[in-house]
Amino acid sequence: MTIREVLKIVDGEVLVGEDRMDEPVDTACGSDLMSDVLAFVKDKTVLITGLINPHVVRTSEMLDITCIVFSRGKKPSEEILEMAEEIGITVISSPLTTYTACGELYIHGLPGTKPKKGGL
């Protein structure tokens, strides 16, 4: 699946990364706990979260997350968007809840992440 397909499925709005719409994503993870994201996420993942703070972008950078979808129509500050742009992470705002966005991506064929070895 590509970020463009994710955008359509979650009825989203691109906030950063319009030029990266054709990048692939292999899995999805929905969480507001960055410790869970650290335990589950691999690269080429789309992160769906309602948490809006710089830690989301920093965690995403560490894990090579391709795209962040902020759920419930949330839009991060310019500071957060600039951080994401600098490191090449696409940011989308979706009106869907985290649960619904994850469900829609799953039924459209995007699998969830599994625990890393030694994880939960």
3D architecture notes:
Helix 3 runs parallel beside helix 4. This protein has 5 helices and 5 strands, in the order H-E-E-H-E-H-E-H-E-H. With 120 residues, it is of the alpha/beta class. The protein has a single domain, classed as HprK N-terminal domain-like (Udp-n-acetylmuramoylalanyl-d-glutamate--2,6- Diaminopimelate Ligase, Chain: A, domain 1, 3-Layer(aba) Sandwich), CATH 3.40.1390.20. Strands 1-5-4-3-2 form a 5-stranded mixed beta sheet, sandwiched between helices.
Highlighted features:
120 residues; alpha/beta; Udp-n-acetylmuramoylalanyl-d-glutamate--2,6- Diaminopimelate Ligase, Chain: A, domain 1; five-stranded mixed β-sheet; 5 helices; globular
**H/E series:** HEEHEHEHEH
Q: What is the CATH-assigned architecture?
A: 3-Layer(aba) Sandwich
**Percent helix:** 25-40%
How much strand content do the residues show? 15-25%
Low-confidence stretches: none
Q: What does the overall shape look like?
A: globular
What is the assigned CATH homologous superfamily?
HprK N-terminal domain-like
Structural class: alpha/beta
The average pLDDT score comes to: 92
Return the CATH topology. Udp-n-acetylmuramoylalanyl-d-glutamate--2,6- Diaminopimelate Ligase, Chain: A, domain 1
Counted beta strands: 5
The assembly state of the depicted protein chains is: single chain
| Major sheet: arrangement of strands | 1-5-4-3-2
| Main sheet attributes: strand count, strand direction, barrel closure | 5 strands, mixed
Termini separation comes to 26 Å
Total number of distinct structural domains: 1
CATH class: Alpha Beta
